[in-house]
Amino acid sequence: MNKVSLREKLGYGVGAIGLDLSYGMFYSYLSLYLTNALGIKPAFLLIITPLARLWDGFNDPMMGMIVDKTKTKMGKYRPWIFIGALLNAIVLCLLFNNPGLSGTALSVYAAVLYVFWGMTNTLADIPFWSMVPSFASEEKDRNLVSTIARAFSGLGQGIVSIFTPIAVAYFGGVAGSKLDAMGAENLRTGFGKWSLIMAAGLVVFALISVLSTKERRIVENNEKFSFKAALNVIKSNDQLLIFMLFAMISNAGFYMTSGISSYYFTSVLGDLKLQSSFTTMGTVGSVLSILVVPICSKFMNNRTIYKLSLCMATAGYIGMAIVGYAFGENVSVTLLGVFYILTSLGTGSMFVNQTVMLADCVDYGEYKSGKRNQSLTFSMKGFLQKMAYTVQAIIMYSAFTVTGYDGEALVQTAQAKSAISFLMFIVPPVMMIVSLIIFSKKYKIHGEFKQEVLKAVSEKS
After folding, report:
1. Which phi and psi angles does 411 have, rounded to 5°?
2. End-to-end distance of the chain based on CA atoms, in angstroms?
3. CATH of the domain at 87
4. What is the DSSP letter of 461?
5. 282-313 residue pLDDT tens
6. pLDDT grade, residue 181 (50/70/90)?
7. CB atoms closer than 10 angstroms to residue 274
8. 302 found inside a domain
9. Is residue 226 in some structural domain?
10. Which range of residues forms the domain containing residue 184?
């Protein structure tokens, strides 16, 4: 049985930092940039977001099959990781740097790059996470690989969330003042320069990951690609579909927090830079979350750990809601952050477990069909994340449209502020609870059955 060295595990995990620099900019700040810096209406974003996901429904499985069929001296995953990271970095820069367009031309520009970001992200994300099952088949080793990768992923998110408000204010030319008081031009300049730094980080970390790792257990797939075949593979893996459902719902809750928090601190509390303090505490929870799975796995199985993760996230969200509504606009960010640590502990370990479960779905698919479709199965990870973001975006932009949110206004209506607070504090824990119920009732790859699957797959190797 091949063991993965700590050096290689760390080298692999570093790549997640770069991917999440791009993720964080896209998922946490693109909405604010498009509405407040470029003046694009939420109603337009409400249309383009699901259309982009419709294309991803074709693009992601296709990319998964392409990776499965790739055969180079570097392997099947690492070439795509670097190519995808490079192209995604270019698109990220273009997305946050308007070349002087306005009106319809600006909307088309934003829409095209919005779709291109998803496509180029897929080029890097699918092969990166698809490497997890090829590292090791032993559960504890696989758990550790996933834990390290998720820890670095959280670090990348933390870098973006903590430093973006400060960096945008600095590069926008108004360091030291409230970020929400900046003009649209200052926001455009600040986000534009900061995105260049994030893009460079994405490429550098991806290169380190590619050069630090090697691929194991490469199973060649010589079948001709077809959407029908890809769809049949996905449909036949019933546990993958169940996983997609409960993971999408819980991830949408997480994205709601990261997406709406910039609006909450800008429009409700009056200073986006307060988000840096709030997110710093969340990052502490994310970093500590790397200990949850290794420690708990000594006396709990993965199923119990996952339930614990969702319960911690829910408890943290409920605490935030109580504090947020009790104190309103006078709430202590530190007190909010204390509960956010608990939430981040839960969501961080939740993501680790999801990576492991997706690897289990790969094994289950092979156990059930006799064919190993590793990258195609892992393509669903990126797709479910994008679908989770789409669910979050539809809810958020619908609320903005109904309550009359205006990104160019310095003061929002009472209805808009109320909607932002509701999205910040109430929607996420509800989603976590729904996800927990579905997982508990429908997901069956655990216990003796999981051991049966692993044994059957190992005997074929």
Report:
1. -125, 130
2. 11
3. 1.20.1250.20
4. -
5. 989 988 888 888 889 888 988 999 999 999 99
6. low
7. 22
8. yes
9. no
10. 7-213+231-460
- Within a domain: 224: no
Percent of the chain with pLDDT over 70: 92
Total domains present in the chain: 1
Compute CA distances 436 → 289, 309, 381, 417, whole Å. 19, 10, 18, 29
Average pLDDT over residues 9-25: 93
Q: Which of 31-45, 112-126, 190-204, 275-289 has the highest mean pLDDT?
A: 190-204
* pLDDT bucket at 1, cuts 50 / 70 / 90: very low
Tokens describing residue 195: 């995105």
- Whose CA is closest to 384, among 150, 82, 151, 129? 129
Look up residue 229 and give its two tokens: 């075949």
The full DSSP string for 60-114 is HHHHHHHHHH---TT-SSHHHHHHHHHHHHHHHHHHT---S--HHHHHHHHHHHH
Helix (H) or strand (E) holding 255: helix 238-263
Q: Tell me 27's DSSP state.
A: I
Give, as one character, the DSSP assignment of residue 184. Answer: H
pLDDT digits (tens, 9 = 90+) for 229-240: 667 778 889 999
- What does residue 5 show for φ and ψ, rounded to 5 degrees? -65, 155
The answer to whether the CB of 67 falls within 8 A of the CB of 130 is yes
